[in-house]
């Protein structure tokens, strides 16, 4: 059975439609990604799953339970790492986990054992007596993940877990997410970093303006929508026209103009040798396709503002 | 439905977990917060009881300092409950994300509201014990402990604390910004402070003010405390307690609704 099932899920705030009738499922043990720019509807979806925002329409089941009718049981099965860090600044690192465990009715002895296990896993045990404000951004995020695991959730919800972190801290968070994946923890991850989604997710949806544009594995989505390689042209006038005239006859290529650059998708072996013969085109203009290209191709705009 | 799902206004035993969270924070910080609650009542006794009191002659056989004790027992602890449910709650709700973190667990908005109100009431009761202790220090000289019934005051404070906490938390849940918290002082605390019967009996006030003062919860709490401190409980005090209970119950309901509107979007 799927751990999360959404059918026609919709959220409206007055005239604004934040989530526009989306369907998706997250399977047991899966790391499922929601990729999209700000305003795509990712966080609204997460809030509906977490029973903090009632759906306007559609169906949403968590572990087979309706979020509208059984919020307490749904929340008991979730571990949520929110986008806005809401660790308890009035408590210590360990105090945060102990207080949180109580909200789930976890007995004290068990709570202490789990708190120790997760603080050690996330390299925070040494800091257990400090207040949260003395931690770095990366440590806070790891503590938020540890807190979300304290109830042994059926699924861990990670809402932009690395936004605002420096590269080193991001990699440490990624590493911990992989450890959890090996342990079989089901996860739903939202992000607007395509490299994060490509690196971590088994399967993902790309969202835009409240809708799901495409769904699949990162590799399949790239192969289907962007091809193996992408040519990124920053030329104009006759030079640009010349390149396009040479490439237009090639079958399977797709062209997209985005903010002063021309992207050519769907490039493979044959086209590569053709491109190498064209003057004005630098060697670096040709690069492997990424999920960013999928998004560009589908929406005509980039993921990041 | 299992026994663990039994609720009152949607509030379940899980409120206790919210109360425990606040208790843990208090245990960490109480030393830093200890000085004002000791100093202020002492200043109050010295200035009002001994300073002003030297010029005040009451109609009865009481000294003014004796008249002030029930008022002190009501006013200072009330500030403890209000502080917790005004500034404290505002920060937990709007700045720290604490409320959102809590309602992301099986603890509901109703439980959260109940836990916050219970904690405010606990602070009020604790503060009452504290004031009683300070009054005890002055008691041998000024004869302030005149009836053993005075020892019931902290228990009444726990109940009245629910009333004050519910009213305050309702206001906090409705407050659009931190600046609007100041209006609570103007609209609620100032009239409560001056016209709640803590400093003078309200009988000689103009009738309009006297009628308005009747609605202030503090008026009724001070009435009850006078009965206990002087060892003269009356049947009318049950009416005072009933009014506090009505205000507490009504505001607990409307606070739950306000908190839902604020936190579930």
Task: Write a short abstract of this structure.
Chain A is an alpha/beta fold and 305 residues long. Chain A is 36% helix and 27% strand.
Report on this model:
The complex is a heterodimer of chains A (about 300) and B (about 260). Chain A is of the alpha/beta class and about 300 residues long. In chain A, about 35% of the residues lie in helices and about 25% in strands. Chain A contains eleven helices and 14 strands. Chain A has helices at about 40-50, 70-75, 95-105, 110-120, 135-150, 165-180, 195-200, 220-225, 235-245, 270-275, 290-300, and strands at about 5-15, 15-25, 30-35, 55-60, 65, 80, 155-160, 185-190, 205-210, 210-215, 230-235, 255-260, 260-265, 285-290. Chain A has a six-stranded mixed sheet with strand order 6-7-8-3-9-10, with helices on both faces. In chain A, strands 2-1-4-5 form a four-stranded antiparallel sheet. In chain A, helix 4 crosses helix 5 (about 135-150). The model of chain B has no long low-confidence stretch (mean pLDDT about 90). Chain B contains ten helices and no strands. Chain B has helices at about 15-30, 35-50, 65-95, 100-105, 110-140, 155-175, 180-195, 205-215, 215-230, 235-265. Chain B starts with 14 loop residues before the first helix and ends with a helix. The interface of A and B includes residues 84 and 95 of A.
Largest interface: which pair? Answer: A-B, 32 and 23 residues
How far is the N terminus from the C terminus of chain B? 27 Å
Q: pLDDT below 50 for ≥5 consecutive residues: which ranges of chain B?
A: none
Strand residue content of chain A: 25-35%
Helix- and strand-based class of chain B? mainly alpha
Structural class of chain A: alpha/beta
Q: Please work out how many helical segments of chain B DSSP would assign.
A: 10
With strands numbered from the N-terminus, the spatial order across the biggest sheet of chain A is 6-7-8-3-9-10
What is the element string of chain A, with H for helices and E for strands?
A: EEEHEEHEHHHEHEHEEHEHEEHEH
How large is the radius of gyration of chain A? 22 Å
Q: What is the N-to-C order of secondary-structure elements of chain B (H for helix, E for strand)?
A: HHHHHHHHHH
Termini of chain A, distance in Å? 38 Å
Biggest sheet architecture of chain A: 6 strands, mixed
* Number of extended strands of chain B: 0
Q: How would the global form of chain B be characterised?
A: globular
Beta-strand segment tally of chain A: 14
Q: Averaging pLDDT over every residue of chain B, what do you get?
A: 91
Mean pLDDT of chain A: 89
Fraction of residues in helix of chain B:
over 70%
């Amino acid at each position: 059975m799927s751990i999360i099932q959404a059918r026609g899920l919709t959220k409206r705030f007055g005239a604004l439609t934040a989530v526009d009738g989306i369907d998706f499922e997250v399977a047991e043990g899966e790391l499922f990604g929601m990729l999209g720019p700000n305003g795509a509807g990712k966080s609204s979806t997460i809030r509906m799953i977490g029973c903090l925002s009632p759906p306007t329409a559609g169906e949403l089941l968590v572990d087979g339970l309706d979020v509208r009718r059984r919020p307490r049981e749904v929340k008991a099965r979730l571990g949520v790492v929110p986008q806005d860090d809401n660790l308890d600044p009035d408590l210590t690192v360990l105090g945060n986990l102990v207080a949180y465990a109580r909200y789930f009715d976890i007995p004290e002895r068990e709570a202490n054992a789990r708190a120790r296990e997760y603080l050690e896993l996330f390299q925070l045990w040494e800091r257990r007596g400090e207040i949260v404000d003395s931690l770095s951004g990366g440590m806070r995020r790891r503590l938020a993940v540890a807190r979300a695991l304290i109830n042994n959730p059926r699924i861990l919800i990670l809402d932009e877990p690395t936004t605002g972190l420096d590269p080193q801290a991001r990699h440490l968070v990624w590493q911990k997410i992989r450890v959890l994946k090996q342990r079989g923890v089901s996860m739903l991850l939202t992000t607007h970093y395509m490299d994060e989604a490509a690196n971590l997710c088994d399967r993902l949806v790309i969202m835009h303006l409240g809708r799901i544009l495409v769904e699949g594995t990162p590799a399949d989505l790239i192969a289907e929508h962007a091809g193996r390689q992408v040519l990124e042209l920053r030329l104009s006038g006759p030079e640009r026209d010349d390149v396009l005239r040479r490439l237009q006859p090639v079958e399977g290529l797709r062209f997209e103009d985005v903010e002063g650059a021309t992207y050519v998708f769907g490039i493979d072996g044959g086209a590569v040798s053709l491109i190498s013969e064209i003057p004005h085109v630098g060697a670096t203009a040709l690069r492997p396709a990424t999920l960013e290209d999928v998004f560009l191709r589908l929406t005509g705009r980039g993921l990041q503002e | 439905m299992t026994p663990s799902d039994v609720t009152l206004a949607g509030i379940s035993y899980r409120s206790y977990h919210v109360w425990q969270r606040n208790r843990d924070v208090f245990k960490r910080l109480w030393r830093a917060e200890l000085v004002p609650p000791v100093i202020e009542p002492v200043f109050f006794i010295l200035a009002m009881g001994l300073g002003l009191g030297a010029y005040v002659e009451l109609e009865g056989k009481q000294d003014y300092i004796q008249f002030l004790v029930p008022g002190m027992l009501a006013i200072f602890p009330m500030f403890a409950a209000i502080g917790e449910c005004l500034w404290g709650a505002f920060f937990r709700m709007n700045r720290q994300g604490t409320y959102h973190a809590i309602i992301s667990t099986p603890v509901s908005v109703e439980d959260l509201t109940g836990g916050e109100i219970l904690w405010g009431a606990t602070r009020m009761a604790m503060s009452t014990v504290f004031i009683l202790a300070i009054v005890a220090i002055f008691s041998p000289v000024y004869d302030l402990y005149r009836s053993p019934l005075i020892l019931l005051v902290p228990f009444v404070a726990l109940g009245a604390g629910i009333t004050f906490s519910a009213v305050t938390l309702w206001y906090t849940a409705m407050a659009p910004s931190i600046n609007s918290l100041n209006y609570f002082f103007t609209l609620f605390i100032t009239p409560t402070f001056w016209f709640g019967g803590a400093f003078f009996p309200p009988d000689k006030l103009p009738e309009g003010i006297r009628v308005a003062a009747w609605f202030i919860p503090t008026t009724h709490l001070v009435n009850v405390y006078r009965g206990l401190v002087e060892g003269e409980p009356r049947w009318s005090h049950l009416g005072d307690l009933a009014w506090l209970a009505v205000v507490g119950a009504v505001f607990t309901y409307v606070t739950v609704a306000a908190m839902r509107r604020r936190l579930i979007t």
